[in-house]
Structures are given as C-alpha cells and as structure tokens.
Design a protein that fits this description.
This protein has helices at about 60-65, 115-125, 160-165, 235-240, 255-265, 295-305, 305-315, 335-340, 345-355, 375-390, 400-410, 450-460, 470-480; strands at about 5-10, 15-20, 35-40, 70, 80, 85-90, 95-100, 140-145, 150-155, 195-200, 205-210, 225-230, 250, 270-285, 320, 360-370, 395-400, 415-420, 485-500, 500, 520. By secondary structure, it is of the alpha+beta class. The chain folds into two domains: about 5-230 and about 500-520, D-Maltodextrin-Binding Protein, domain 2; about 275-490, Roll (Dipeptide-binding Protein, domain 3), CATH 3.10.105. Strands 1, 2, 3, 10, 11, 12, 13, 14, 15, 16, 17, 18 and 19 form a 13-stranded mixed beta sheet that branches. A four-stranded antiparallel beta sheet has the order 6-7-9-8, with helices on one face. A two-stranded antiparallel ribbon has the order 4-5. The two termini are about 20 Å apart. The relative contact order is 0.18.
Amino acid sequence: MFNRNRFLRRVAAIASISLVAGCSLLSDGDPDDQGPIVVGTTSVPSTLDPAGAWDGSWELYRNIFQTLLAYPNGATTPQPDAAQSCSFTDSTSRTYRCKLRSGLKFADGDPLTAEAVRHSIDRIRTIDAPGGPAGLLGSLDRVETTGDSEIVFHLNQSDATFPFVLATPAMSIVDPDDYPADSLRKDTEVHGSGPYKLQSFEEDDKAVLVRNDNYRGFAKRENDAVTIRYFKDSGGMVKALRDKQIDVTYRGLAADDILALQEHDSEDLQLVDGAGTDISYLVFNPKDPWAKQPAVRKAVAQIVDRGAIAHKVYKDTVDPLYSMVPKGLTGHATGFFDDYGDPSVPKARKILTDAGITQPVPLTLWYTTDRYGSETALMFQELKRQLDGSGLFTVTLKSRPWKSYVVGYQKGEYPVFGRGWFPDFPDADNFIAPFVGEHNALGTPYPAKEITGQLLPHSRAESNRAETVKDMEAAQQHLVNDARLIPLWQGRQFVAADDDISGGEQALDPSTIMMMWTLHRKTSW
C-alpha cells in the first residue's frame, strides 16, 4: 500500500519528528549514475537577481547563492555559512560583526570578499526595486568592511532579528563584477557561491543546477545535480510524478492531489507531510471608500467562516487561522476568534447598522490566478458565497496572473485582495513588521504607529525571543482591532516523491525553503 512518511516540524520550537517505515539505507553505488534529481514546483522565479525579489524566487536562490548565515539541517536559529562566525558586539544589538570563511570563491572562480558582501547588501537598498526586499533592511544604517574578511553592520536601532534577516535568500552574496550597484541584472546568467551553480535557465520551464566545486559552506550535498521543473498547476505536476518524469514535487500541490496521493494504492510513491508557517489572508485598501471603513472590515471578519474554507475548499489540508502570526511561533495568539467567535450574520449586521450602514455593501475582491495554488479561485468563490449569503454584501470577483497582479496592488488598484505569506524567517516579528508602516510589502500604507514606534522596537531589543510574547500579542491585538488584515488559513507543507528518493524529510529549512542538496536516491535496502 501507499508508503506515507509523516514529518512534523515546529519551526519556533525545537522539534522534529519523522515517522519513516522501512529498513536502514545502505549505499553501494553512485546514485547520480541515474541522472539529476528532478524537482517539480509551481513556484516560478520572478527574477534571477536577489535584489529584485521578495517572493518564491528565494527557493532557487537558497541553492545557488550563499548568505552569511543560513540553517543547517535541524537548526531553528541561523548558523554561519559563508561566514566563519557572526555575533553582536554590543549589549544593545546595534553592531553586528561577521568574519568570512577563508578561501571563498564564486562559481566562476572570482574571490568572495567582504567587499562583495557589502556590495550585495548596499545594492538592495540603492535599487529599492518594487516588490524587492529592501524593506527587510529598515534597521540597517551602514555596512563597513575591514580587510577582505570582516564585515560590520551598524544598525540604526536595536534589532535582535537582524541575524534572521541576513539568513534570508534576499541577502544572497553576488559578484560585484557581474551585478551593477544601481540596477537589476536582466539576463539569465547567475554568479553565486552556493552548493550548486546554475548551468541553464529557461523561464517558466526549468532550471538546471550542477555541483559547484568552489562551494565552501555547511551544506553536505547528497547529489551532484538537480533540475527544477516549473509547472502551471498541481495536476500537471502530479501527472509528471506518476509518469516518472520528475522525482519530487514541492510547492503547489492541490488538496485533491494530496488526498489522492495519500490514498494511492502503490508502493512507488511517498508523501512527506510537515507543519508549515505559510498563511493566507485578505488585505483591505484604505483608499477604497468602502474598504477604508472599520465597520465594513469588521463585518467581513465576523462573517468569514475559516472552517468552511479549510474543509470545503482545501479538504482539511490547511488549518483555520485566527491571527497573522501562525501557530508554532512564539507569540501566536487567537485574537480574531477571541473577539469575533464563530461566524455570525446577526453580529455582522449590528456592526454595520451601528455605523449607519443599512444597504448591502459592494465590495470587489481580487485574487491571483497562478501563485498560491489552484484552490485560490475556489476559496474566493466560497468567500463570495459567504458574504453574499449574509445579505450584507454584494461581492464581485476579479483576478489577474501574478506578474500583473503585483503591479495592481502596489498601485493601490484593489479594494480588497488576497495575499499569501511564506516567512522570511521563523519569528513572530516577520508576520507583523512587513505589513505595517508607510512602505510595506503590501503597497497599502498602514501607519500603525504603536506597532512601528513602540512594540516592534521594544521587542527587537530583546535577544531572548521568548521574552517578546507580550509585545507580539499586543501588536496582534492592534491588527484585530483595525481588521485591515484578515487571516484565513495556515498551510502545511507537503513533499511528494518517488519511493526511490530519500532526504525529503530534511529538505525544508525553518522558512520552508527546500534545500535541494539533502535529496538523494536510495541505492539499496
């Protein structure tokens, strides 16, 4: 019968439980004689330049670039990778010093020096690309280098989360000779220093990765080559898995396909099911005459039935979420359930009538057609059914492909729109800070002065993240009170693979990014 591996991993708590049936693996040959491991995903890179992407492009970056810090298998806090050591050198978490490993080189043989690190970080802020990761560096004042191997980051405020920021693929180190200081690189060439080098890239089709012999870091490569194939939907990806055209699937498995894989009566496939921290949520645009009204937003929050979405649309492959901070992270709360309880049309009607709104509210809800899985359209149809069914709203649905969708919400074109969030790093701060402030990741200004001016700065001064719970809970309550952002569900991570593939259980780092180097073929049992 179907061989199902269940891998439960808590990102904030140090826990990793893997239930794997079978005997110990013995290696008696070269698994790469069978060619590269082929991984399928629906998450297509938006750009190959790390200074331009704050999205799923990071999946590729993690494997072809290096960062100063990253996550070895089993780690939940950043550890040195390109760096030999990193630490705060003051008691206020405002000066962070890193020393590079010796002998670092890019894949083409150019030396990787402290100046390359400074160049890589500075260009992110200089370019400040729309949809890029410059927002992650809000606490950085300047970067200083000493010789070829030492980098000092001077922060403009205390920020104990800064090591987590440096561990994101956004901070990938690039070669100054190949990446302009003031503009994004547009071609499909990549010069990194990661475990693999990018041999070729065909947009919307595949990325061919081969072993980088110049790599110096913690990654222990279990294979010499990986090909990543990009699919438009889950159905095509799973068919390719069943037809032995790919070995592993990651990102984008639809609920029906997950259920079918779970029930598949065969010994040639396996499914790794892991706790995730990706979330789905609604964003209300304060420029819209209806969405800007607190009563309208709170009435929507009162009607939304997360349980129905999780069960009817996602077949219980996701969990209802009642806070922007997901379960499993220190500081998680359940404010939307505590304040609103179960879905209630009478309560929602009272919220509106108390604000003088007695006619059905017209709302246009936007979603992307090709980013968060094939169930997205079904989820928005369910939201429309719930809101229209209350008699309090008349909902119009509209959609666009991701590339044009991003442009639209950054220009403030959508009254209400759906977003997903995969964590930059496993800390509650990363589920609050990116969404607030005048310049946030959503393109909709959200001042939230108590959060940005008091709670986040206070929590970032605390190096012991367990001591930030009160600040994080208070920030979440502000989000509940405003209802500018309404969380819907928290995902789980599923990796389906041929039964001949090992390493899927170890492949996901705490930000749920796949580390391709853990994958390998079983040569014998």
